[in-house]
Design goal:
Elements (H helix, E strand, L loop, with lengths): L4 H6 L18 E4 L5 E5 L2 E5 L2 H6 L10 E4 L1 H4 L17 E4 L3 E4 L2 E9 L4 E10 L6 E10 L5 E4 L3 E5 L8 E9 L2 H6 L2 E7 L2 H14 L3 H5 L6 E7 L2
Parallel strand pairs: 1-4
Antiparallel strand pairs: 1-2, 2-3, 5-7, 6-7, 7-8, 8-12, 9-10, 9-11, 9-13, 13-14
Length: about 240
Amino acid sequence: MSTSQSETSSATVPGQAQPAQPAAAEGTLVTGLGDGQSYLVRNGERQLITNVSALFQLGVTDPKAIQHKSLAQDELERIPLSSTNPIATLTQTLQVDSGDVFLGAGHYMHTWGAVSTGGQIAMNTRTRTITMFGGFHGSVTMIFGDVNSAPTYQTQTYRYGVDGTWIGRSDRTDAWWEQMSADEFSRTTQLAIFHAWAPDSFQTILDRWVAAGSSIASLAGSVGSVAKVFTTIFA
């Protein structure tokens, strides 16, 4: 039996290039493994996300539920960058950036992001090592405080592992989200970010500190053997 014209046109032709699949689906939050920048994929383009307020203005009602994907820089750049950026940053959004924190032995962590006036916390944490065979597990915990260094809000402890540069994945960036209450936010005047290279030991110290009800300053002074601390005061 001969093949009809309609059947022939719909068939896959051997050797014919197939349409490329998108690197990330619509509505995905993508983070570049190279520069650590995050973007929301909308209408086939990537929209730069500088803080959590931008997500809410773009209609994302639950940042925790949004799909997240990390992409190699060349994959990320295949998604067209939006030529317009209608996102207005709320003037009272608190910008946070620990900078690149050296943990010793060629290991680094870096946490940055923003806290909106509604108490939404949106952060990225980069974990990396420059040693050939020396991977590690690190953790990040953020503790907010009032004018007396008493804690107003404590995030979960987020743990991330990397391999040595000759073994496997030695560099990763992860996004994470939390929500503090409006009352907790209203009392917050300072922040401490704890990056630990010994997460289990840090957790033991943290648990004892929570039970004692001490100040953030006292915790910062007791973790020097297992963690580095970045502190900032909000104007």
